Amino acid sequence: MKTVRxxxxxxxxxxxxxxxxxxxxxxxxxxxxxxxxxxxxxNYTMDHGHPEQIPYGSDIDSAGLxxxxxLTEEWVVKFGFERFEFEYEEGNExxxxxxxxxGHQFVLNxxxxxxxxxxxxxxxxxxxxxxIQNLYFALTNEELMIKE
Length: 148
Known about the structure:
Layout: E1 4-6, E2 9-13, H1 20-24, E3 44-47, E4 50-53, H2 57-60, H3 73-78, E5 82-88, E6 91-99, E7 105-109, H4 129-140
Antiparallel strand pairs: 1-2, 2-5, 3-4, 5-6, 6-7
């Protein structure tokens, strides 16, 4: 585990207490039907009780039969985000950082919302896995995929 000093904060990546229960608990039943316009090929959704990646455009037509997956710490870590804890005199802060190959970072706060620039001014809160996948693709032209 490394510790990084950033201005007046001490930053330490924190390992996840991962387990099947946390992963399974991340699935949510949406009260309204998912719309095909929300989805893209490659999005993760719940299909018949299992997380599945949409493989074909024709599967998007079945959006009403799919359920969204709740965006959780478990999912952002699966996508390659690293968790950092900052200690300030005023208290602690947690962030999640995805380092891109070009040196840029995609940063989420502890509520799993974007922190940087105009991205932080979204008119909605990220709630589901497919939403962060779509936002990331719109900003980077790259897919946000599970890191093996």
